[in-house]
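Z., the sequence and structure:
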Amino acid sequence: MHTGIRLSLYINYFVFAILLNSVGIVILKSQNVYGIDEIQASTLELFKDLPIAIVSFLIASFLPRIGYKKSMLAALVIVSIACIGMYFGNSFWAAKLLFASVGVSFALIKVSVYSVIGLVTGSKKEHNSLMSYIEGVFMFGIALAYFLFPAFNDESKPDSWLNVYPLLALMSMVSFGILYRVDFDEGHEIHGADLGDDIKQMLALMTKLLVIVFVFSAFLFVMIEQGIMTWLPTFNDRVLRLPENISIMMASILAISLGIGRILAGQLTKKFTWLQVLSACLLVAMAMVVFVLPKTVSASVADIKVFSDIPWIGFAFPMVGLFIAPIYPLLNSVVLSSLPIKLHSPMTGLIVIFSALGGTLGSRLIGWLFKNMGADQAFYYTLIPMGLLFLCLFALKKLTDIKTSTT
């Protein structure tokens, strides 16, 4: 039975990876097709992440009472309708509504998926491994988005890229059909008496120092990841002067490297501690910003027609994904596996809320830096949250050790 549940988690996360992280592509298209500037375009991240934060806050603890399966099915129906709305709406406002719908739906999906992981795993190492695999599958879904959109995009036909949305609606409904057929044992969590009590559970978690340090760490990481991922297509377009479709497809290198990094992390945590893995990865990521990014910015790029025309340095910086990849799933797993299962749903709510806030702030800051400091300088500022996150890892290790010794 667990095999069927795990498969449904993989498929649903894969579909939402495509939808959720197409925001960088739509930001680029909004600038080129709808005449929107960088700061206006970055509001799409806000329309996506604010509903994630609000919905997660309101329903995270309440969700077990609704049912994880029902919640995920509802999410798939919502995004199917939203995709059709984008196809016919064809405007920046339609894009805002699309990502608001995707945000609401993803809150339902992510809280459900993270909570169900705790039900189908029996140890911390198994939890670490499954979390890394699921987040890895998520990254491969993102990578597919960077090829799926260019497959429909014709720069001579401004509306051609919209043809991807009926396909995305169909994929969502196929995922609905697969999930509908899976039998779920949703466990026997202890819930609050009502919505107000559920919210109190979540707020009570925020009084724990372990949780405070963790959510700040999650906030910092998503600020880094989403800041780079959302604006990489624009970076490729403005700095490397790549054609639009190649700019989008090149961004897939980051997503693929993130996926590979998370799959590898699932194996590395069987041999090394999470602190060893994450501290090494973060140091290498910082070194890449310091040493590789300047070479990418200063590269002399000739007229690019196909992938083979791109100099090797153009492929180098997106490989930073290999090293930032393990951070998010392992941090989540470290904290969730330190808490009793009955607290997984409210804790996941906090994870989603602060991840959404980090993603919004990261994208908005990088968008501001792109406009005011230049596309060639913006990514250097990711060193600040990287440095803070490095310090948080050691604080988190100390706090989880204390938690373990007292339980």
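The chain has a mean pLDDT of 81. The radius of gyration is 20 Å.

Let me know what you think.
H.
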